[in-house]
Model the fold of this input.
Amino acid sequence: MNDLLTAGKVEATTDAQGIATVSFFHPSHNSLPGALLTELADTITRVGQDPQTKVIILRSEGDKTFCAGASFDELMAIEDEAQGLQFFSGFAKVINACRTSPRIVIGRVQGKAVGGGVGVAAATDYCFATTQASVKLSELVVGIGPFVVGPAVERKLGKAAFSELALDASEFRTAAWARDRGLYAEVLETTEQLDQAVAAFATKLAAYNPEALTELKRVFWQGTEHWDELLTERAGISGRLVLSDFTRQAIERFKSR
Done:
């Protein structure tokens, strides 16, 4: 098996205030193979159900890239629609884990977010970023589309901005652009400032009534109760498209750059 498909890690810690930090890492620009996506989703769910948890911080390690999205090596290994469905359901699991968690999830985006990485950021309830945290939905470049992450991105940015990102698939949008359209609540100059802002906000939330926060979260996500089925349906679309000759050739060209 390709070593990159088994590389990476997910870690979770909870401090005395009940602030839980879920962190992921992958040596290939924090891309997320299927196994790591499942582990990340399961960890978010487990931590959110822990009575000690008051709030969750979701972050990645490293400096330059928050999350580069799907693993191209794993993408190329897909042989049929069933495997395609399973692969593209990975980001659906993470988005739905954030959505259904009874705890507020704070995003910490220190660098670029690409493809599924934009979806992860959009699935958080309140997201901080640095000026380096530009965004790009690159799926169309390789012959598919941002079908699975689309509902989460559209919910945060609106249909017009989602359409802009999805169609202009080869270009990054700045962190300021993402902030102005609702993906990021605040954009900081440095990682140090980012961490200070995230910690201060998490501390503030951890002091509030947890029951009130849970009820607020239900209000925030009202109308998404069908997302288990919707995101699976969207994963099936991508799973079918990835088998096309067009997509296979596009991914090969992309990898050979």
